[in-house]
Design a protein that fits this description.
six-stranded mixed beta sheet; 3 helices; 157 residues; 27% strand; 6 strands; alpha+beta
Length: 157
């Protein structure tokens, strides 16, 4: 404060920053999923002593309207199917997961329906399994009107 009062520092032009403009990394017209989104995390969820956990991967990217966070999880197509295995079976064997899997992608952040359709198209091109893309459920700790899941917002192939 003394430097400002004596005129050594101009408050309109502080020496510690503010001289450069920030330009966010955006990909307005991506050709691939990897070009649009970068993987920022991975963990295994679920599982237990006789079950196999599901890989959950987190991605981030900016299609032009703001940063988006994606969470993808592989799910079983048959809801009643279990991934229980005996000790001598593995997932590569024909006894487990006969009905197949699908990829569930949850999008967090403000995105238009066109962005959601673009994410679905890029994800489907990157994976041979069925892909479902939807907005995340609303949160209680911020403006719910901006992230409410409207009816029919889930895109499935």
């Amino acid at each position: 404060m003394h430097e400002i009062a004596t005129g050594r520092i101009d408050p309109a032009r502080p020496p510690w920053g503010g001289r450069h403009t920030l330009t966010p990394r955006t990909t307005p017209n991506p050709a691939t999923f990897g070009e649009a989104f970068r993987q920022i995390g991975q963990r295994t969820v679920g599982g237990g002593p006789k079950t196999t956990g599901a890989d959950e991967r987190q991605f981030c990217g900016n299609l032009g309207s703001g940063i988006l966070f994606l969470t993808s999880r592989v799910r079983l197509i048959e809801p009643n199917e279990s991934v229980y295995t005996s000790s001598n079976h593995r997932l590569r064997d024909g006894h487990v997961g006969r009905s197949g899997h699908w990829v569930d992608i949850e999008v967090r952040g403000i995105c238009s329906d066109a962005d959601l359709a673009l994410i679905h198209r890029l994800a489907q091109a990157a994976d041979s399994r069925r892909v479902s893309v939807h907005r995340a459920a609303p949160c209680d700790d911020h403006d719910v009107s901006r992230c409410k899941v409207p009816p029919g917002s889930c895109l499935e192939a």
